[in-house]
Write a structure and sequence with these properties.
By secondary structure, the chain is mostly beta strands. Helix content is 15%, strand content 43%. It is globular.
């Protein structure tokens, strides 16, 4: 698919700084360009391999909500992989971006297969899980259950998921399989950086997840590794990454 030149999402005004340290999962100390040192909310609870190096340039957003304990949110970090690249840190953002992409019918394998978009719909054998999106079309079309995962780990030009053992992610794969064949089950990997052209399971980080993902694909679960360019101005959709890794 050709690169989409339009912004899907535009960031609010962001402030520049340098990462001092990330700690206790939810906190990041950052020195702003003004010299002020702040503690920002870190909205990524994972290990953040390669995207939490002290001394790296970062951008933060500021909230004026007086009820917030931390006024700043860490939005992105610049890494020097093959070239300087911004990587999205805010894991709350991918679902918002995908909702916008779905509204515009931008994701071609899904386009024109739905008219209604529902978020956070209860599903699963025990009805205790929530799928990120449920897409419904005409009565003759199968509903589409869509789960979104944010991907920040990269090795060379390959985006990898997961970056740690994820029992929750394993559960999602099992539950998506159980929806077949009455529904379409889709795992969408939101590649939160523009420097990756390929995607593979993070087998060395969670071999069980990698095995389950391949089994799910063999049964009919669809995998959509979607590439996004992250910039201080906004986010662009770049199309699909190529799948590699013994599928």
């Amino acid at each position: 698919m050709p690169e989409c030149l339009d912004w899907i999402y535009r960031y609010p005004p962001l402030e520049a700084g340098i990462l001092l340290k990330r700690y206790k999962r939810f906190f990041a100390d950052i020195e702003l360009a003004s010299g002020k040192i702040i503690t920002a909310h870190c909205p990524n609870t994972g290990p953040m391999i390669g995207v939490s190096t002290p001394g790296s340039p970062v951008l933060v957003s500021h909230s004026h909500n007086p009820k917030r304990k931390l006024a700043y949110t860490w939005e992105m970090i610049q890494v020097h992989h093959h070239q300087p690249t911004w990587v999205g840190i805010n894991t709350g953002l991918p679902n918002r971006v995908i909702a916008l992409a779905l509204a515009q019918q931008l994701i071609l394998p899904l386009a024109n297969s739905y008219r209604q978009i529902r978020k956070e719909v209860v599903y699963g054998k025990d009805q205790k899980s929530r799928v990120d999106f449920l897409l419904n079309g005409e009565s003759c079309q199968r509903p589409i259950y869509l789960e979104v995962k944010s991907v920040t780990l990269a090795e060379e030009n390959v985006a990898l998921f997961p970056d740690t053992v994820t029992t929750r992610g394993q559960k999602h794969l099992r539950e998506l399989q159980q929806l077949l064949p009455q529904a379409r089950a889709v795992m969408l990997y939101f590649i939160n950086r523009g420097d990756c052209t390929h995607f593979a399971p993070g087998d060395s980080y969670d071999p069980v997840y990698g095995q389950l993902l391949r089994e799910a694909v063999a049964l009919g679960v669809e995998v959509l590794p979607c590439r996004f360019e992250i910039t201080p101005q906004g986010i662009r959709y770049l199309g699909f990454a190529a799948l590699i890794g013994n599928w």
